[in-house]
Amino acid sequence: ILFESDQAFSMSNIKNEFKQQAKSGAVKLTDANLGDSDANEILSTFKEFPDITELDLSGNQLGDAGAKTLAEILSHKVGRKRGFLSKMVKNDSFRLVLCRNQIGDAGATSLANTAKDALSSSKCLVKVDLRNNQIGGPGAKAVAEAFASTTTTAFGISHNNVGDEGGIALAKAILGKQMMELSLIGAGLTDGCVQALCDCLGSGETSIKQLDISHNQFTPAGVKQMCKTLAEAPKTKLAQIVLSNNQVAEEGAEGVALLLNSNAGRELQSVTLESAQLSDQAVKNLGEGLRTHPRMTVLDLQNNAITNQGVRTIADFLHGNSVLGTLKIAGNSQIGSDGVSTLSSLILAHRTPLKIDVCGDESPQQNTTSSSSSEPKGKEKKSGGGGFGFGRKKKNEAPDTNKTKFYSEDGL
Where are the beta strands (DSSP E) in 160-277? Predict the structure, then answer.
């Protein structure tokens, strides 16, 4: 249920809505304009519903005080019974979403301490989303320690400036876990935490399917080191990797090539290198992995410094690829008519439908894709399908903090 913040809802109405949703086991009170003063009145209703498996309070204004109140309610004890959160995590899974709530280190630490006690002996599958708060290194460290002993399958703390202190703590916490998603977008990470991330990602016991470390401050050397580690990881089977808005450049592209050609990288379906300082040489460094990759369906090279020569290199690599379905190359301002002509030839030669976005299309209905468009009967297609996406040029900016690429509030 989405409450628009500009409408007035009484506490009694929200409380009644809470109770109705709680009966189904999932409570979603997003954008309900709940502040720290409302938390006790609304959240005290928890005590009546120990079978809740999902709590989504994103887009409110809980702050540290509200987070502390929530922590106290979740740790509520009745007589000698264990805390309320302990009852909740007796279920097969538990999902907690508190993004966009102005929670800082103090609130995150309170929640972490409660969770640590409740989850210490639980086998519950935990999914946590704390994106877009004000959590720094100390708060991230507390959260990491709390979930270190749990079976955490998805963890998001993007758009919090946790820095290398938080990055190192989080890397240690997920060591040995089998995770579907790890999102560290815009977390203030630098090469200072690369070794810790490598120790985690390269562990024979750690497995991650979707990794997004975009909008950080990794250098080409750091990117190459991480990709090389992933390539050599015995259990990693990545399906998606996002390295956008880091300094990938030529050296980092060499690391991506190593990953593409490794067993760990053969499962990759989506590679995003938007705004990654890629030149024509960097594209060349991606190498034969583009030609023979068996599964990659989306390649995003938007907003780089690729020219007509780089386009020819890409086309040469992709002529041998029959799997790729989408190539995003908008925002490379040095691509001219020769480059567009090369891409047109690539579409005609591609054995399967191929969509190429050269203009940063933000409106899917404006795309023209031959494989899905209706044609006059009797008219044969000249190729396997595909087309160009035309629309507004995509700006080189950070993603919408409410709608990240693969980690939406419903994505966990």
Answer: 178-183, 207-212, 240-242, 270-272
